[in-house]
Amino acid sequence: MPELFLYDTLTRSRRRFESIEPDQVRIYTCGPTVYRYIHIGNLRSFLLADWLRRTLTTFGYTVKHIKNITDVGHMRQELLDAGEDKLIAAARAEGKTAMQIADFYTDAFRDDERQVNILPPTVLPRATDHITSMIAMIEQLLERGLAYIVDGTIYFDVTAFPSYGKLSGNQLEAMLSGVRSEADPAKRRPEDFALWKAAEPGRDPLMTWDSPWGPGFPGWHIECSAMSKAYLGAQLDIHTGGVDNIFPHHEGEIAQSEGANACTPYVRFWVHGQHLLVDGLKMAKSTGNDYRLSDLTRRGYDPLAFRYLCATVHYRSRLNFTFAALRAAQRGLNRLRELVAHATVDGVPAAAIAEPLAAFQATLADDLNLPQALATLWETVHSLDKNTAAALALTCDEVLGLGLSDWHAEAQRRQAAVAPLLAERETARSHGDFATADALRTQLEADGLHVHDTPAGPMAHQDIPPQPAKGLITGSVEVPCQLAHPDLYDITVSLVGRENADEVERALRAVRTTQGDYRIQVIALDNGSVDGTAETLQRLTENDPDFVPLLADHDLGEGAGRNATFRCATGRVIVWLGNHVEPTGDVWTPLLQALEGRGIAQPVGATGGWGLWTADRKEFEPSQGHRVDALEGYILAFPRTLLCQTNWLDEKFRFYRNLDIEFSFRVRKAGYALTEVPKLPIRVHPHRIWESLPEGERQRRSKKNFDRFYKEWHHWRDVDGVLVYIEDFIRRR
Q1: What is the pLDDT of residues 333-360, one digit of tens each?
Q2: Which of 175, 455, 528, 543 shows a CA-CA span of 20 to 30 A to 515?
Q3: Which residues pair with 501 in a beta bridge?
Q4: Each residue of 444-475: b (16+ CB within 10 Å) or e?
Q5: What is the distance in angstroms between the CA of the first residue and the CA of the last residue of the chain?
Q6: Which domains does the chain have, with CATH numbers?
């Protein structure tokens, strides 16, 4: 076997791997915090640990792998009471305990790992089962002068551990920014961290433990230090996790473990995986792109397609997850399945695959270079006969973990099981009894098999899982742009829906009953729903040739969703319509007349039912006779050609709030005025998206979009109704 080299975060270098004990490797992985579902970014980190473990096993090591469960032991009561998410809030309302909630999410985590073929760890310890070990380690830190007590809470004194910060390289300012909560006045220094916290009043007794310092609960970092020592000893060969764990969590682990155990180093190799982005953006609940594995499977993807996708990008590089990339990964996985499904590998000698297998292993030895290993496999199998290629793929899959051996075994089993039926069908065909032969073929295909007549005899091939439905878009740019094409309609109405088929149908019905003699095209995008909205949109086209459905394979976000509808619009005027707004009469004539700009010095670029004005770009109020500085997108009309000057909406606005204001400022920057058409005949229904969000989530999403708007536009000022950049504004003054 080649020598294994790994990149070590601590030394910031690629080093030859040597274990503490010959042929034995001890790995610790930071597991999930089980008061929510894990997302695919978490899964990527756990896949790194799995691939590392499989590689070490292939290279002849015996691996002991510990992955912890961080249950509710370290959580503050108010986090649970506030409801970290809606599921926890509902569970608490049903009377479920914190531990029952943790059990639920632990089971969900284990199921997700099973679906992507992650090997179960040697031990999966829970933090709350190791409180005694944590208390013992804290007592050692107190004895060695590395910690201090304040009113029953124990803090680690980072100044007593001179090498604190060596993993992350953080200076004091960075350490302070990494602190998760508000500054604690009880600490000697803000960068000190809690080892044990005194129980707050009203804390759940099941989340409280007795200690020499009174009732309380452990801090976040001490859990891993205590559990790793309990199962692997004072020193580890490898510690894995995501880059977001480096500071403060892993930095805290080093200080605690080396301080309490009086040994260095705590870990020989720190292996960290980079972030997973989604469509170029950081995953976040507020962004709505924190996909779970179930979000992929509900769209028709195999969980192992995600594993294949992660193998195509090196673990130390960011992976930009897109559904287009996932579709490509699904195709690659299916091709490997086809390669091994019906091959005969028992007679292939080991020598036949020795050379290509060595090349595959050499790429693994180079800091777990899975993308190159996968490429090496594909390059090789094309030059081998079918059986040898399958044997190589199955051997390589012991590391890749794509479940090819299970697929191959099932194909062989099914082939043997249907052999009598295939023989019966062949006999019927040879006697000219084609009716019986066709009936047998139908019976086989009903069981998920495809029958192929070959010179060597009939074969029944197992179905490869179908690809997700075609015709789905993964981004607005995939929609052909009609901006340069002539007008085919008077108006195009833009709708963007997500899991709200009834609202889209209501809006379409309202447009059709109020359009009069106007030619109106309605374009509705389904933004990655999984509740049947897409099917409803497709049904609506049956009797409405002027209705255009667009189907996205995931939530593109509001900005991208609107852009998709704008790109294929062919109306002279586009009307941006909110799903909760229902026209009850002729809204079209007043909007079109307002765009003509009669009596207004500047050409009118956009108009709508709700105008806003602002004195400082920080607060926007209803215009109420003031000038109109922005328009709300509940109903907003503009000439289609205006997009040539304003360009498309900013797709970083995934949430709808402030997207309309940002677009309004683009219109004004282009030299156009905005007007308001009050008292339009419309009925406003509850805004389902807004009302479905907790108050805190509303504020977070709104602020994120406002900050994006303000950063772009706070340097612009009004000059005679036109927005001017501040430097030009000063020159004009």
Answers
A1: 999 999 998 889 998 999 999 999 999 9
A2: 528
A3: none
A4: beeeebebeeeeeebbbbbebeeebeeebbbb
A5: 75
A6: 129-232+245-266 (3.40.50.620), 294-412 (1.20.120), 418-462 (no CATH), 476-726 (3.90.550.10)
**pLDDT tens-digit readout, 109-161:** 999 999 999 999 999 999 999 999 999 999 999 999 999 999 999 999 999 99
| pLDDT 10s digits, 620-662 | 999 977 789 999 999 999 999 999 999 999 999 999 999 999 9
The burial class, CB within 10 Å (0-12 / 13-18 / 19+), for 733 is exposed
Give the Cα separation of 164 and 175 in Å (integer). 10
How do beta strands 5-8 and 13-16 pair?
antiparallel
The backbone region for 528, taken as left when phi is positive above 0, alpha when psi lies in -120 to 50, beta otherwise, is left
Asked if 594 contacts 604 with a C-beta cutoff of 8 angstroms, the reply is yes
In sequence order, which residues have a C-beta less than 8 Å from that of residue 259 and are 6 or more positions away?
Answer: 140, 141, 144, 146, 156, 160, 161
Spatial CB neighbours of 590, under 8 Å, sequence gap ≥ 6: 677, 680
Q: Tokens 């100044």 belong to which residue?
A: 159
Distances (CA, A) of 108 to 34, 36, 291, 606: 9, 9, 14, 49
- Tell me the residue type at 427: T
Please say whether the beta carbons of 530 and 497 come within 8 A. no
Dist. CA 304–CA 264, nearest whole Å: 39
Give the model confidence (pLDDT) of 367-415 as tens digits.
999 999 999 999 999 999 999 999 999 999 999 999 999 999 988 887 7
- CA nearest to 80, candidates 109, 107, 101: 101
